[in-house]
């Protein structure tokens, strides 16, 4: 087992990023929620700080982050933006930028990734459909090869960043089935653009949190994409998509830890000051015991999340661990952390009494946002299935 320690460079990066966040992001929380978008000047500042798809190699405008450094940024951005809108934009682009960078064609990478890293385009992920989320093998979006490229038909739903992709340009890494009889072996991955594309109809959903980044869907009606938008080989999409999911799941664990730790710190400040029955409420054991347990869980989750990202990095860059080992450790990291974070934030709000429930309190924004992570990029039930599959073997997969 490797105990994760950070390099001096990573410590310095965290320090300077925290400063950047304090100045650029922290004062803007209510604006993010009121305007329901990430302001252009924040996107620009993030681009300058190399926070947009930083996993992309410098050849295509990225910072070439390893997964652990990417995790540091996820944690810090979540501390700074309790709405988690900025962390979501960050983690989605970092994860799927990694997949695009590694398996996309040189032509598509040159065309799209430098714009993504400059904040002039979006790179999201769109696998979920109206009737299919967890059960990807039964998705109905189709991809058919033509002379010039591929024709796509389908309907994607609950997708982060659709409005932004329509506004800025760029689009989503997407999966479709070439052979409906071939199950997961008939899935192909490609990049699908969303801005001004005839045959694409975009819709938006109202979500309970993360208000500054959109969630929505798009219908694809006979849209032809060029051949060079293929990512990896035809029919290998199901394998590739898990690399992106695992990257994203690993970062999500740290978004949860960052947001919840910040809430706990807010709670600590409050319970040291607020008095009830003649004493600061932090003197009461009922509060202290809950604090001690949440803090311990979050520290454990934090260490484990970095360990999981370390495994992912070693597998991706050196082939050191197997795909299945990485799947398992990442699933373990995402299985419990969103729930632990949600409960910690919930208690931190409770300690703050009625103020905790007011819009002025940042922790209620975090609570609403963190709830999404028991679903997004793979639900907690699917995380359990992955861990159990690795412990029991393929013969025990429930859905086969
Ligand atoms: C805020 C938000 C943003 C999102 N952004 C994106 C995005 O950018 N791109 C994208 O592609 N998707 C996105 N999603 C969709 C997300 O990935 C799906 O919600 C998730 O995969 C679950 O799919 P589903 O909602 O269709 O639920 P279903 O798959 O229909 O499942 C419903 C419930 O049943 C459970 N379940 C399913 N199968 C089993 C089983 N075998 N055993 C036990 N329980 C089971 C699930 O865990 C879930 O709790 C987003 C979701 C949210 C909430």
The backbone outline, from C-alpha atoms, is globular
Unreliable stretches: none
- Output the number of helix runs: 13
Numbering strands along the chain, what is their spatial order in the largest sheet? 1-4-5-8
Question: Please, how many domains?
Answer: 3
- What would CATH call the homologous superfamily of the largest domain? Butyryl-CoA Dehydrogenase, subunit A, domain 3
Helix % is: 40-55%
Brief rundown of the structure:
The protein has helices at 8-24, 29-35, 40-48, 67-80, 85-103, 106-118, 162-168, 237-273, 285-318, 323-351, 353-356, 362-370, 380-392; strands spanning 122-126, 142-145, 149-160, 170-177, 187-193, 200-205, 215-226, 230-231, 275-276, 279-280.
Topology:
Layout: H1 8-24, H2 29-35, H3 40-48, H4 67-80, H5 85-103, H6 106-118, E1 122-126, E2 142-145, E3 149-160, H7 162-168, E4 170-177, E5 187-193, E6 200-205, E7 215-226, E8 230-231, H8 237-273, E9 275-276, E10 279-280, H9 285-318, H10 323-351, H11 353-356, H12 362-370, H13 380-392
Parallel strand pairs: 1-4
Antiparallel strand pairs: 2-3, 3-7, 4-5, 5-8, 6-7, 9-10
Helix pairs in contact: 1-4, 4-5, 4-8, 5-8, 8-9, 8-10, 8-12, 9-10, 10-12, 10-13
The structure holds flavin-adenine dinucleotide.
């Amino acid at each position: 087992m490797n105990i994760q320690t950070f390099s001096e460079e990573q410590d310095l990066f965290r320090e300077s990023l925290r400063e950047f966040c304090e100045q650029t992001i922290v004062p803007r929380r209510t604006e993010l929620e009121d305007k329901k978008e990430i302001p252009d000047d924040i996107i620009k500042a993030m681009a300058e700080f190399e926070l947009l798809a930083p996993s992309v190699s410098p050849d295509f405008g990225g910072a070439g982050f390893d997964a652990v450094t990417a995790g540091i940024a996820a944690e810090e951005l979540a501390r700074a933006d309790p709405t988690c809108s900025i962390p979501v934009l960050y983690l989605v682009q970092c994860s799927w930028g990694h997949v695009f960078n590694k398996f996309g064609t040189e032509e598509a990478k040159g065309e799209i990734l430098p714009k993504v890293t400059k904040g002039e385009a979006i790179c999201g992920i769109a696998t979920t459909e109206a009737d299919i989320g967890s059960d990807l093998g039964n998705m109905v979006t189709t991809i058919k090869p033509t002379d010039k490229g591929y024709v796509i038909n389908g309907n994607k739903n609950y997708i982060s960043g659709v409005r932004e992709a329509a506004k800025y340009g760029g689009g989503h890494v997407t999966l479709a089935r070439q052979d409906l009889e071939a199950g997961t072996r008939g899935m192909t991955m490609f990049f699908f653009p969303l801005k001004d594309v005839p045959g694409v109809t975009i819709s938006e959903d109202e979500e309970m949190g993360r208000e500054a980044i959109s969630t929505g869907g798009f219908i694809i009606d006979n849209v032809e994409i060029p051949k060079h938008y293929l990512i990896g080989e035809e029919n290998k999409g199901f394998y590739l998509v898990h690399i992106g999911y695992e990257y994203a799941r690993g970062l999500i664990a740290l978004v949860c830890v960052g947001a919840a730790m910040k809430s706990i710190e807010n709670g600590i400040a409050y319970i040291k000051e607020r008095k009830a029955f003649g004493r600061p409420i932090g003197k009461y054991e009922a509060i202290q015991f809950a604090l001690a347990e949440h803090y311990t869980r979050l520290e454990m989750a934090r260490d484990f999340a970095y360990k999981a990202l370390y495994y992912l990095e070693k597998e991706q860059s050196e082939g050191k661990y197997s795909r299945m080992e990485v799947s398992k450790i990442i699933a373990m990291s995402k299985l419990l952390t969103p729930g632990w974070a949600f409960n910690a934030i919930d208690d931190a709000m409770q300690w703050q009494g009625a103020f905790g429930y007011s819009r002025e309190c940042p922790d209620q924004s975090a609570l609403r946002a963190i709830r999404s992570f028991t679903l997004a990029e793979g639900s907690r039930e699917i995380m359990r299935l992955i861990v159990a599959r690795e412990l029991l073997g393929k013969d025990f997969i429930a859905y086969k």
